[in-house]
Amino acid sequence: MDRKTAKKLSECTCFNLRKASRAVTQMYEAALEPAGLRAPQFGILAAVAATKSVTITRLAEILVMDRTTLTRNLKPLTSRRLVKVLPGADRRSKKVELTKKGSETLLRAVPLHKGAQARIESGLDGQWPNMLSDLTRLIRVAQKS
């Protein structure tokens, strides 16, 4: 492979987003560790808290996550009794709700998350709002494909 091709590959959107995602995830996980949560678990708990009660299918859509991946990620939260999975409106659907323990864990984690978020925002020198807008647009572009 020549240098020009290698350079183009190193500019790949997917490669760079995944690399940035791993670095950011590692930082958030270190911050959330005192609350006993991993970064994806915090996101799931926050989404469930924001919706009060949500079907697994809708939660997967909100999180832009495959339903089976979400189900796998819910298992440790369910076994720790942070969320409960209940029957939905019909036999095929299930809904997810935060438990009291889940709500308490999320409340403990929020200040830790805010600290990590503040570090990211300050490191981006005021560019976070633009970056958030660009990421939102990027999600829409990718979902249209």
Features:
145 residues; mainly alpha; Arc Repressor Mutant, subunit A; three-stranded antiparallel β-sheet; 3 strands; 9% strand; globular
Counted up, domains total 1
Strand content: 5-15%
The strand order across the widest sheet is 1-3-2
Series of H and E elements: HHHEHHEEHH
The main pleated sheet reads as: 3 strands, antiparallel
Number of helices: 7
Tell me how many strands there are. Answer: 3
- Helix percentage: over 70%
User: Ranges with pLDDT <50 over ≥5 residues?
Assistant: none
* CATH topology call: Arc Repressor Mutant, subunit A
CATH homologous superfamily caption = Winged helix-like DNA-binding domain superfamily/Winged helix DNA-binding domain
Give average pLDDT, whole number: 93
Shape: globular
Ends apart, CA distance between termini = 29 Å
Which CATH-level-2 architecture? Orthogonal Bundle
CATH class: Mainly Alpha
SS-derived structural category: mainly alpha
The radius of gyration over CA amounts to 18 Å
Protein described:
The chain has 145 residues and is mainly α. The chain has one domain: Winged helix-like DNA-binding domain superfamily/Winged helix DNA-binding domain (Arc Repressor Mutant, subunit A), CATH 1.10.10. The protein contains 7 helices and 3 strands, in the order H-H-H-E-H-H-E-E-H-H. It has helices at residues 3-10, 13-32, 39-51, 56-63, 67-79, 100-123, 128-144; strands spanning 53-55, 83-87, 94-98. Strands 1-3-2 form a 3-stranded antiparallel sheet. A hairpin with a 6-residue loop joins strand 2 (83-87) and strand 3. The longest helix has 24 residues, at 100-123. The protein is globular and about 55 Å long. 16% of the residues are buried. The model has no long low-confidence stretch (mean pLDDT 93).
